[in-house]
Amino acid sequence: MIQVGIFGVTGYTGYELVRILAQHPDVQVQFATSQSFAGKWLTDVYPQAPHLPLIEEADAPLETVDVVFLCLPHAAAAATAVRALNTGGKVIDLSADFRLADPAVYAQWYGHEHPAPELLGTARSGFGFAVYGLTEWAREQLPGADLVAVPGCYPTSVLLGLRPLLQRPLLAAKLPLTGPIIADSKSGVSGAGRQASDTTHFMNVADNFAPYKIGRAHRHLPEMEQVMHWWQADAPPLIFSPHLLPVPRGILSTIYVTIAGDWTLGDVAALYTDMYAGEPFVCVLPPGQVATLAHVTNTNKCVIGLAQAGNTLIITSAIDNLIKGAAGQAVQDMNVVFRLDETTGLV
Amino acid sequence: MIQVGIFGVTGYTGYELVRILAQHPDVQVQFATSQSFAGKWLTDVYPQAPHLPLIEEADAPLETVDVVFLCLPHAAAAATAVRALNTGGKVIDLSADFRLADPAVYAQWYGHEHPAPELLGTARSGFGFAVYGLTEWAREQLPGADLVAVPGCYPTSVLLGLRPLLQRPLLAAKLPLTGPIIADSKSGVSGAGRQASDTTHFMNVADNFAPYKIGRAHRHLPEMEQVMHWWQADAPPLIFSPHLLPVPRGILSTIYVTIAGDWTLGDVAALYTDMYAGEPFVCVLPPGQVATLAHVTNTNKCVIGLAQAGNTLIITSAIDNLIKGAAGQAVQDMNVVFRLDETTGLV
Amino acid sequence: MIQVGIFGVTGYTGYELVRILAQHPDVQVQFATSQSFAGKWLTDVYPQAPHLPLIEEADAPLETVDVVFLCLPHAAAAATAVRALNTGGKVIDLSADFRLADPAVYAQWYGHEHPAPELLGTARSGFGFAVYGLTEWAREQLPGADLVAVPGCYPTSVLLGLRPLLQRPLLAAKLPLTGPIIADSKSGVSGAGRQASDTTHFMNVADNFAPYKIGRAHRHLPEMEQVMHWWQADAPPLIFSPHLLPVPRGILSTIYVTIAGDWTLGDVAALYTDMYAGEPFVCVLPPGQVATLAHVTNTNKCVIGLAQAGNTLIITSAIDNLIKGAAGQAVQDMNVVFRLDETTGLV
Amino acid sequence: MIQVGIFGVTGYTGYELVRILAQHPDVQVQFATSQSFAGKWLTDVYPQAPHLPLIEEADAPLETVDVVFLCLPHAAAAATAVRALNTGGKVIDLSADFRLADPAVYAQWYGHEHPAPELLGTARSGFGFAVYGLTEWAREQLPGADLVAVPGCYPTSVLLGLRPLLQRPLLAAKLPLTGPIIADSKSGVSGAGRQASDTTHFMNVADNFAPYKIGRAHRHLPEMEQVMHWWQADAPPLIFSPHLLPVPRGILSTIYVTIAGDWTLGDVAALYTDMYAGEPFVCVLPPGQVATLAHVTNTNKCVIGLAQAGNTLIITSAIDNLIKGAAGQAVQDMNVVFRLDETTGLV
Asked: What residues in D contact A48, CB-CB < 8 Å?
């Protein structure tokens, strides 16, 4: 049994994680921390939760666990990661702290110096320590890794939707991508977090629909462009427009990519089905079908649809933001790190 | 008092129309037809409705009215329009029958020959009879017109969002639009109509979000491209992706336009505020702000936001699909046709 | 023109009030206060609002107005009422401060001494100053009144549903009400107020339904029982179970009353239609039909349905909590106070 | 492995059943029928479903299965039950056909003679064949049973909420229940079935809340009263008021019972915790806490809250209508019939 600790269990991501881990046959949760609810039980916060005591972060018995999951705000996550690594445990971090390989980019988008730059550097970047845990892409770097940066929710939906286009050198030469790539993304309210605010007040969400931080303003933009450049050095820039949907969970990204040259939807569909053949959690729909939230909510799946409009490929990519976009992918990463069957606890 | 008849009053558009007209000081509703509910009262269908008797379409006393509103399916609308025009009344048609100037395009998208091609041809097209009633654009053609084609809901949101870019010759020369224009639109469920179906079943809509007919597949595409070409002969092609939102009403279109050359968001914002200065129902937000459904539901307004990402202008354009996207604009058109104050009954 | 001031305009009730008053032909809004947003505009808070400046409560020019509406928390409302009355204006208070005639009951339920007990005492109580503004009941006390206590939202739905049973001496003798009266009420989220909290977080409301303060625990209980006793000295006790509905607005109360003796649904229906004949805002449905939120949202109406199960009468009573349950009834009261047509600005 | 067939798999109940059975370690689904979609795959109807072929009911290989689940309309279910029993299989029927022991009552409420009255008669009724499968109550009758009538969704929520009061002879003598019992129940839309209709149209459900068939008009009333009389011969009559909630799933019943004599909430709570001690799927909350949908959605649990108002006990009882109210309880019953651990596949 893998002994697990969870930091920040009372946020939506932490709660989803504990629900998944409670069903996982190879895992035992040793402790769960919560700054706001320490001293209470998880069932005091979520009526359907497992009956776990909530402890102070400082009281976490790090020496009793093999791995910790960090569902903490940025900066706090890095500090806890250092402590956990020093105790000899592995760290699976669901915050943004280890997603960006370049500490200068981190400082620019998060407004403070990176707390532990020596740990940065992610898969395929050639240096560093953290592995960027988009499981389908990092499957070979993950086994045995000590520090995993679980991708953001929007990046998971967009990057899985783009990967076959960007990671195929032949295509890059024959069918170059031109102009900016546009990701028009829509997310359910759980993505905005558990903290009550005007943004998440029922009266402001229900019967409404609203864009926010559109263009090149959202913190997930540099994360996506970083990975796009890993995959294709001259990848076009990304325009990213998130919107808040009046639903509890789910992300749908509608992605527009202009591909020069002669191609058919069948060509592109073959590229996708080829790359994702055998993937347990990525499903490519038949050409012309669209992905919807109903395909994916409450699952660890990413469902991808492909359509064509002239030279523009329209990719619809749907995930559950709390599962494949956070806690589910974190467990998927853990399974690979510990060399378990990748789908354990997730189907 | 303008004597009015309504055909097809029990659809969502017809019902919204009768609600607006009930508040209109210069209008008297003489009759309202419903194929499904003839013999009943409108209150049997909508509990808050005015207490109007519903009659058979064939029994409508056309000779008693000055103008009829047609909230009928395509083809049926054209046939009724001919009858009404022959009786000497004016026609404001909310169907698609007179929106397209070219009967061949109509036949291609609607699957049958146009029932009354001699009436076609819309404003600025140089021939024909019907006026395309995007009020802000057709204000000079509307007074006294006999046949008005009220624009579709999606086209209203997209075209008002694009008009300042397309209808400015100077801009066209100095700052050409390149590549396709992308309109990623999201509509509430009332846009799918009153007929119960799998699409509109609460269980399929709630907690879900789904694209449909994306790319170049939706019937509103040729309508939009037609008007775009009126405004700029070499306008780029349009990619149009509608999505079904789990809300009763409202459309938000997020529109991406690539503009070559040197420009700032301030330049473009000036173009918009200049064109829409004095418009009672179009509101341009300060640069950087986004339009949301909450700006417009239950109003006849179109609210427009502008943002920039590199050379791409991102326009967010919101309307209430049943009001500015249908019944409200129809009344706005009627006001102009009859030379009333354009805002009568709408504020 | 009646000159009006609004205190606490940025809560949901205040906002609804300003929307109604903006359409009222005999009213001019002179000022609007907001503690949280003083110095901003109302449009900064509600995008569809009239463009009113928000001022500090202390800066309100009381001497410029004929009447003030108080949309303030309890205790704060009473203090402002005293100031306004001293300046010679009338006060229409939407808080709970003047609803209860007995200051001891007030102290018990609100946890502090009443700030202005000399103003208490409500319609038909034989002493005092404030008039309890359930318009249909207080129509003769309201004209010229200086202080009106607008009823609570739940009380409006329950009391209008019960009044014909309780205010008919003949019935009381021949058909006595036995056992407790049960009001199982369900309210939309706007009733919980504008303040962001766990209770109003979209994630806790959507897809959920929850009772709260059931039995004899909610502050509206003593208000309802007080009025019930005005109407029938030996009225049975009330059991009141509020529930939070995942909708923005509307209250439906399902009320169970056991009536001894021989009666038919027709007898009771006649009682209701007789009492409410001519009422502009109370609508009694034909026997057997049920009231729903769809009957009343966005209107000032109370719609009442009647059904029978043995000796139990089941009353379904629906209102819009923000209109007939607050701002609409406040304006209805104001119309009567100032001897205007009661429906002005409300239809 | 238990070999299973499912009739009527494409309704919401059938689909929920197949989802549960897909996770059940001791079950293999041999076939699944659908009149509307025979020839297609279950994934064509529900994108997240197991990939099962849908066959005609007439083609179902009854001889290959140990047990069939019937998710069919009434009358159709009875006919199929007879066929399945004749082939030697067991039957777990989720329709209403075998819930009522008295065929005359059935005929009165369902409008036709019972198709197989010789199979009627339910647990504790002293004759007949079918077992009424409220698992907690029928646990001793179920092992080996050939025909199980799974209770209705509303009855499950109400009966589990009432059972400790009715099935305690001592209580009946000392603390008699007086007057009618009132169950004010609220159900999510899945209870209305998969068929598209005005009732289930998103536009009629969203932002609305509506009672229907209140009093003594709903078909679940005789089912509940039958069981109440099994438990206490002189049980009071039931008043039952269902309401349609704008949520996909879940039932909350707020139940009012007047208990004569001296009692405290603690007394009653002890009765409940005593009766339900050790029950895996019934949870009694601490006195004063209320049950909500959030306690139970997507689980097989019934959560019960208790509150007091004078002599009235207020019971809040919540279930997921598709799980504990249908498919989950059906599997729970199957587990007991086949002498498996009762919770298999359900936690």
From this structure: 294-296, 298-299
CA distances from D263 to D88, D152, D171 (A): 51, 31, 10
Closest to D71 in 3D by CA, of D110, D16, D137, D24: D16
Tell me the ipTM for this assembly: 0.96
Contacts of C45 in chain A (CB under 8 A): none
Contact C211 D252 (CB under 8 A): yes
Is D105 near chain B, with CB under 8 Å?
Answer: no
Residue C251 CB neighbour total at 10 angstroms: 28
Per-residue tokens: A123: 């898969």
- Model confidence, pTM: 0.96
CA distance C199 to chain A (A): 9
- Judged by CB atoms closer than 8 Å, whether chains meet at C48 and B299 is answered as yes
> What's the CA gap between D257 and D243, in Å, rounded?
19
Break chain D into its structural domains and give their ranges.
Answer: 2-151+325-337, 154-321
Contact D153/D172 with Cβ under 8 angstroms? no
Whole-angstrom Cα distance, residue C34 to residue C54?
A: 6
- Which residues in B lie closer than 8 A to residue A237 (C-beta atoms)? 310
Tell how strand D251-259 and strand D177-187 pair up.
Answer: antiparallel
| Active-site annotation of A, residues | 153
C153 is catalytic: yes
CATH of D2-151+325-337, one of 3.90.1150.10, 3.40.190.80, 2.40.50.140, 3.40.50.720: 3.40.50.720
What torsion, rounded to 10 degrees, do the Cα atoms A121, A127, A133, A138 define?
160
Distance from A126 to chain C by nearest Cα, in Å?
A: 42
Give A14→chain C minimum CA distance, Å: 15
Cβ(A133)–Cβ(A150) below 8 Å: yes
CATH superfamily of the domain spanning A154-321: Dihydrodipicolinate Reductase; domain 2 (3.30.360.10)
Q: Are B150 and B330 in contact (CB under 8 A)?
A: yes
Q: Report yes or no: C190 at the A interface, CB cutoff 8 Å.
A: yes
Q: Is B59 on the interface with A (CB under 8 A)?
A: no
- The verdict on a CB contact (< 8 Å) between B198 and D203 is no
Could C207 and A248 be called an inter-chain contact, meaning their C-beta atoms sit closer than 8 Å? yes
In DSSP terms, C112 is beta-bridged to none
Q: What is the DSSP secondary structure assignment for residue B95, as one 8-state letter?
A: S
Contact D94, D133 (CB under 8 A): no
| Residue B301 Cα, gap to closest chain C Cα (Å) | 10
Strand-strand pairing, B27-33 and B67-70: unpaired
Looking at this protein, which amino acid is placed at residue D56? E
Work out whether strand C312-319 and strand C302-309 pair parallel, antiparallel, or are unpaired.
antiparallel
Q: Give the helix/strand (H/E) hosting B156.
A: helix B153-166
CB proximity under 8 Å: D 276-295 to C: 290-294
Residue A173's SS3 state is helix
Helix, strand, coil: what percent of chain A each, to 5?
A: 35, 25, 40
CB B225 within 8 A of CB B167: no
Q: Does C154-321 match C2-151+325-337 at the fold level?
A: no
Q: What SS3 class is residue C220?
A: helix
Per-residue pLDDT in tens (0 to 9) along chain A, 347 residues: 999 999 999 999 999 999 999 999 999 999 999 999 999 999 999 999 999 999 999 999 999 999 999 999 999 999 999 999 999 999 999 999 999 999 999 999 999 999 999 888 765 554 568 999 999 999 999 999 999 999 999 999 999 999 999 987 666 678 889 889 999 999 999 999 999 999 999 999 999 999 999 999 999 999 999 999 999 999 999 999 999 999 999 999 999 999 998 999 999 999 999 999 999 999 999 999 999 999 999 999 999 999 999 999 999 999 999 999 999 999 999 999 999 999 999 99
b vs e for C27-40, b when ≥16 Cβ sit within 10 Å of the residue's Cβ? Answer: bebbbbbbeebeee
